[in-house]
Amino acid sequence: MARDLYPLDRLRPLRLSICLFLLFTVFTVGTAGYHWIEGWTLLECLYMTVITVSTVGFQEIHPLTRDGYIFTVLLIFFGVTAVALSVSALFEYFILRGLTTLLGRNKMDKYIRKLNHHVIICGCGQTGSCIARDLKSAGRSIVVIENDPTRIAWLEQEGLLYIHGDSSDEEILERAGVQKAESLVATLRKDADNLFLTLSARSLNAELKIIARVEDPEHGRKFMKAGASRVVSPVSTGVNRIVQLLTRPAAIDLIELVGDHENLAFEVSEIAVKKNKNLVGKTLAEARVRQTLGCMVFAIKHPDGKTVFDPDPEMKLVPGDVLVAIQKPHV
Q1: What confidence tens digit (pLDDT) does each residue in 103-134 have?
Q2: Angle formed by the axes of helices 11-38 and 66-91, to 10°?
Q3: Contact between residue 184 and residue 120 where contact means Cβ atoms under 8 Å apart
Q4: What CATH number matches the domain at 116-237, 3.40.50.720, 3.40.605.10, 3.40.50.1000, 3.40.140.20?
Q5: Residue 7 banded pLDDT, cuts 50, 70, 90
Q6: How far does Cα 40 stand from its chain's mean position?
Q7: Looking at domain 2-110, does it have CATH number 1.10.3720.10?
Q8: CATH code 3.40.309.10 for 265-327
Q9: Distance between alpha carbon 227 and the CA centroid of its chain, in Å?
């Protein structure tokens, strides 16, 4: 969407460069022409070219010859045209460009204000950009908060909704719709920044799901105390994956098969019991999940965070439970 807000941005610099080059050519040719025709000094020729092209009405510094009159007429015609085009290009580049950016920013803010249950990504570095791209491919509504101007061009190119500002600023978080958001991903470079961001976001939305990235695994407890729902450490995750590949390669192959292949005949999904009134108060056997929803439940996550794998068919479902199941993907 952001790409549609700035459709002329790539053409304006090119047009401005062409016009400035044309204006430079006019002054160069004018100066050289007067020097060749009239034999004046270069300074006199440049001065004559400037007063001619600018049409200020000053008299000639020296009487002109017949060839000089003809050259002056041509210089006025081409010079005034070049000046008019250059002034127009300058106006469009600096004035209209700023106006278009302002209108585009307002339009983007309107889109963001309409969002509900979206994901806010704070920090668009290597990790944040990959998350944003994958969530966009999955059809999720996302808003990226980024403070680095060099990353804004990438966000616009990808057509992502974004806010240019400091993620730890509560006003910026409110502009991103943190009160109505479903999740927030903290992927700033420093753990201290992510920790402060977690505190700020939790104070604005007690129900927000906050996933924080930490560089030092030992900081995980601090983040949980600050209000993070989940803490992800690239270091510990990478080490754990290597150990599992060495000890349980078949299981990891199955997980990667489910997660990486879009055309696979089944997928892992989550079913919230509170959103399905037909499940509340029934046992897993009575709910007939496989027959009614077309999926096979292999785990149940309780509201207290405890997860039960291979649940008993007689386990009663309560509001807040989340069924983790395998099912065929929706077409």
Answers
A1: 556 677 788 888 899 999 999 888 889 999 98
A2: 160
A3: yes
A4: 3.40.50.720
A5: very low
A6: 58
A7: no
A8: no
A9: 25
